[in-house]
Amino acid sequence: MGLAHDGYAPRVGVLEEQTWPAMREGAWPVALLPFGATEPHNMHLPYGTDTILGREVAARVAASCATQGVMVAALPAVPFGVNTTQLDLPFTINLMPSTQLAVLRDVVRSLEPHGVRALVLLNAHGGNELRALVRELQPSTSMVLTIVNWWQAADQDVFSVAGDHAGELETAAIMHVAPHLVVPDRSTWGEGNAKPSVFDGVRSGWAWMPRRWTQVTVDTGVGNPRAATAEKGEAFVAQAVERIAAFCVHLAGVDANAMWAER
Ligand SMILES: [Zn+2]
């Protein structure tokens, strides 16, 4: 009895969709680990916005790299992020930075024996401060650990005001990759007004403290989403994917001991 069917179409490099033979054969010099979050995104975007965007960008980067002859594994996204200051919002799920460190350490150890030479932490949530994790783990692994904040990889001047959280950038990106998850009635979208800090140093950027989200914004958004369009999202995501893919291809081809150039 033939069980074959015509619709079989795993996306290249997307680990969740691969078979054992596909992963066993060939070289996978670079892996992408998307870091998302589970939290409210204004009144119109889903809780999984950051995870959805990280996962999709990773899949598209893997596809682009494959066309350039470099196999990049897009790992399953970490669906929870650091959200210690949003816990008064229902169903926000927080991972402590120390938990994130433990997760990352185990992922690194799992990949290490299988030829992955560089791991790109593809971050999609501002509260995930991954540098401290990498600084702690890098000395104990030969794998090159790098971080890409995907939303910083493309030119934000396509937006009138990109916004921080559920603003024009994230709204446009979700309108492009998951339009069925954007509340269609724009009159229900919050304006994403964020209150500034009362401290000069915090407003200037040389002092910092975590924002208590419910005191900063009434609709959980930071940045007005109204000017978002799917076309802006498409252009922005495409440029981010192109640049991150070029970075991954370059990573795959450079020796770990030759990553800093002589001038
Ligand atoms: Zn977000």
Short description, anyone?
This protein has helices at 20-24, 49-67, 97-111, 131-137, 168-177, 200-204, 213-216, 230-253, and strands at residues 30-35, 72-74, 118-123, 144-149.
Explain what you see.
With 263 residues, this protein is α/β, with parallel strands linked by helices. The protein has one domain: 3-Layer(aba) Sandwich (Rossmann fold), CATH 3.40.50. The protein is built from eight helices and four strands, in the order αβαβαβαβαααα. Strands 2-1-3-4 form a four-stranded parallel sheet, with helices on both faces. The model has no long low-confidence stretch (mean pLDDT 95). The structure holds zinc ion. Residues 41, 49-50, 125, 165, 170 line the site of zinc ion (ZN).
Radius of gyration: 19 Å
Order of helices and strands: HEHEHEHEHHHH
The chain-level structural class is alpha/beta
**Low-confidence sequence ranges:** none
The strand line-up of the biggest sheet is 2-1-3-4
Which word captures the global form? globular
Task: Write the CATH fold name.
Answer: Rossmann fold
Query: What ions, cofactors and ligands are bound?
Result: zinc ion
User: How does CATH name the architecture?
Assistant: 3-Layer(aba) Sandwich
Tell me the name of the CATH class.
Answer: Alpha Beta
Spatial gap, N to C terminus: 65 Å
Number of strands: 4
How many helical stretches?
8
Tally of domains: 1
The CATH H-level superfamily is Creatininase
How helical, in percent, are the residues?
A: 25-40%
Instruction: Quote the average pLDDT.
Output: 95
* Share of β-strand residues: 5-15%
Main sheet, how many strands, which sense, barrel?
Answer: 4 strands, parallel
